[in-house]
Amino acid sequence: MKKLLVIAVIAIVGLASCNKDYTCSCTILGQTTVSELQDVSKDDAEQACDEADAAAQLLGGSCTLD
Q: Which residues have a Cβ under 8 Å from the Cβ of 11 and sit 6 or more positions away?
């Protein structure tokens, strides 16, 4: 499930416009995964990380934009 979450975040970011690099840190079942969101606007990075957070919450986890 974690791999699917990371792939989803990367896919969403891949379709976004270029601007800056951000990271989205997700913790699920005690495991932390950091996804790099490259060349995206802040709004797009927030949206991608919020969507990842919604998926992570289904497993009792959370994601934050760093």
A: none
- All residues at 6 or more sequence positions from 27 whose CB lies less than 8 Å from its CB, including other chains: 33, 56, 61, 62, 63
CA distance 60 to 23: 20
Helix (H) or strand (E) holding 60: none
- In angstroms, rounded to a whole number, what is the distance separating the alpha carbons of residues 26 and 30? 10
Amino acid at 8: A
From residue 2, alpha-carbon distances to 7, 34, 40, 53 in Å are 9, 11, 22, 12
pTM of this prediction? 0.70
Eight-state DSSP code of residue 15: T
pLDDT in tens, 17-34: 558 999 999 999 999 999
Residue that has been written with the tokens 């790099």 in this structure: 36
